[in-house]
Amino acid sequence: MPTGTYVRKNAxxxxxxxxxxxxxxxxxxxxxxxxxxxxxxxxxxxxxxxxWTHWADAEGYTLDAIREAYAASFALIESGDRPCxxxxxxxxxxxxxxxxxxxxxxxxxxxxxxxxPSPEETWPILAAFRRWMREQRGLMDSTLDHYQLTLVDLLxxxxxxxxxxxxxxxxx
Length: 172
Hints:
Strand content: under 5%
Structural class: mainly alpha
Largest sheet: none
Number of strands: 0
Low-confidence stretches: 3-7
Distance between the termini: 69 Å
């Protein structure tokens, strides 16, 4: 192996071990190997994770707040308003952070993410509407999912009391 490649690999590992992933760097690489990632891809994932954890550390995030760090970095990338911090934060490094969070969850370091209630659980009237439309009108779930996009907004504004569903309120 050429000296430059070896030094680069160690520099990435050193940088990774200096951040919030320090205690998990070796096991994360093993986890990737178990999923049949190639050695070069593992090195690239380590590099991307080192970049992301460097950004997260600079922003004051710790491993305990890794989900918040991921959400903040994802929002920065999506908004296009990302800082120019030595290229540490980019779409690929944020995706690698998501992979690392999945690893932490699977290894039991992080508890499973809280499951949000489905719209049908939030609004039982929506579940009843979907059931009725399926049974009485024969609609497919794909059509009902399309309708639900609008209905969720309507329910969020008007609530689940049908007496408020007047023409005036619906138009407004």
